[in-house]
């Protein structure tokens, strides 16, 4: 098999840990000797052994003279929760290392590769690099900017409506598209919604359907008007409910929410609303590397206007709702020129059940 074939297998291993490694990257590794895979490993969760260590320990003596495939450059920095991987790679006796992407962490960024080459190992870099970067777009964003990667998810009709004039939105898309939403939630650090979604739908915002982990929940609520009975305030193991608010919020309401276990996050105000740009900074400070916005029309518009969205996932149901009074996917004020529309790149389209999933980057 070729280097890209082995690397593709390593990337699949890395992807097994979606949602578990933050704020670390997802990494997979293979040890190959004489055309045979002798060991595999992947980074299972933050604080645990890295992929290279798992694979090299499993390979044991068979690592000597072998090739190590790893999806992210081996780490070389300290102090941290686990020892640097470059020492383990050199000590293993592997002859060659194939790396998909350099680690964008400023504390690494090519230094691990230089250490390996300095020890006499042959190192090749860039095999399936684009795929590796896309897998770790959250980590790359956070480690280079201190801010999480933001995905905006919209479920809409073919004519761009997300709810009827009465506010009814359950369910526009079918069960398979909704199952995809739960998988997306399980893969991110947090889900963001506005108070309007909480009042209209009373969601839990968990990753149901057998998920082993749930995202943190972030509610945009300028005056802390969220009802204390809202289901999103119920405690969920491993997940915290954060309520982002402004200085307009009464102190008594803040104390009430904190007594229920929520964490109130004061952020700057822009036009009387939560400032998305400041919010994303604060979520990054909480070591969140990826967030999913599942807001209503105005929240979607606010996030796009702030320029914080990196990726858009639109779930399109093949039905027409119509009506000037139905709720559109993106609110706010329309630009006067088509040239000012947000243009997506690297767009992909696939079918999920009866619906179509359109993904693209901004």
Q: How would you characterize the overall build of this protein?
A:
- This protein folds into two domains: 137 residues, Cytidine Deaminase, domain 2; 215 residues, Dihydrofolate Reductase, subunit A (3-Layer(aba) Sandwich).
- The protein has a nine-stranded mixed beta sheet, sandwiched between helices. A five-stranded mixed beta sheet has the order 2-1-3-4-5, sandwiched between helices.
- The mean pLDDT is 94.
- It is α/β, with parallel strands linked by helices and 362 residues long.
- It is globular.
- Helix content is 28%, strand content 25%.
Feature tags:
18 strands; 28% helix; alpha/beta; 2 domains; 9-stranded mixed beta sheet; 11 helices; Dihydrofolate Reductase, subunit A; single chain; Cytidine Deaminase, domain 2
Question: What is the gist of this entry?
Answer:
By secondary structure, the chain is α/β, with parallel strands linked by helices. The protein has 11 helices and 18 strands. It has a 9-stranded mixed β-sheet with strand order 11-10-9-8-14-6-15-18-17, sandwiched between helices. A 5-stranded mixed β-sheet has the order 2-1-3-4-5, with helices on both faces.
């Amino acid at each position: 098999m070729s280097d890209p074939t082995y690397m593709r297998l390593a990337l699949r291993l890395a992807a097994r840990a979606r949602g578990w490694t933050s704020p670390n990257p997802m990494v997979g590794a293979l040890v190959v000797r004489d055309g045979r895979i002798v060991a595999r490993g992947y980074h299972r969760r933050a604080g645990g052994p890295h992929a290279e260590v798992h694979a090299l320990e499993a390979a044991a003596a068979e690592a000597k003279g072998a090739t190590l495939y790893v999806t992210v450059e081996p780490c070389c920095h300290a102090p941290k929760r686990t020892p640097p991987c470059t020492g383990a790679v050199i000590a293993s006796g592997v002859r060659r290392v194939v790396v998909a992407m350099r680690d964008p962490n400023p504390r690494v960024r090519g230094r691990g590769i230089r250490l390996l080459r300095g020890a006499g190992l042959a190192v090749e870099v860039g095999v399936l690099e684009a795929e590796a970067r896309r897998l770790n777009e959250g980590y790359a964003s956070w480690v280079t900017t201190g801010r999480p990667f933001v995905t905006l998810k919209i479920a809409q009709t073919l004519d761009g409506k997300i709810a009827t004039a009465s506010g009814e939105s359950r369910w526009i898309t079918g069960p398979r598209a909704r199952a995809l939403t739960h998988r997306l939630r399980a893969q991110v650090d947090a889900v963001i919604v506005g108070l309007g979604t909480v009042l209209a739908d009373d969601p839990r915002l968990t990753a149901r359907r057998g998920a082993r982990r749930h995202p943190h929940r972030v509610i945009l609520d300028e005056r802390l008007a969220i009802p204390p009975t809202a289901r999103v305030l119920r405690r969920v193991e491993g997940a915290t409910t954060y309520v982002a608010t402004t200085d307009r919020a009464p102190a008594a309401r803040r104390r009430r929410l904190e007594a229920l276990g929520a964490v109130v996050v004061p952020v700057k105000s822009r036009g009387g609303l939560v400032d998305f740009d400041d919010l994303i900074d604060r979520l990054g400070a909480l070591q969140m590397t990826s967030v999913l916005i599942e807001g209503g029309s105005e929240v979607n518009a606010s996030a796009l206007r702030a320029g914080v969205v990196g990726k858009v996932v639109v779930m399109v149901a093949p039905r027409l709702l119509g009506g000037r009074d139905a709720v559109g996917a993106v609110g706010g004020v329309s630009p006067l020129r088509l040239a000012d529309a947000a243009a997506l790149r690297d767009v992909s389209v696939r079918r999920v059940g009866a619906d179509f999933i359109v993904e693209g980057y901004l």
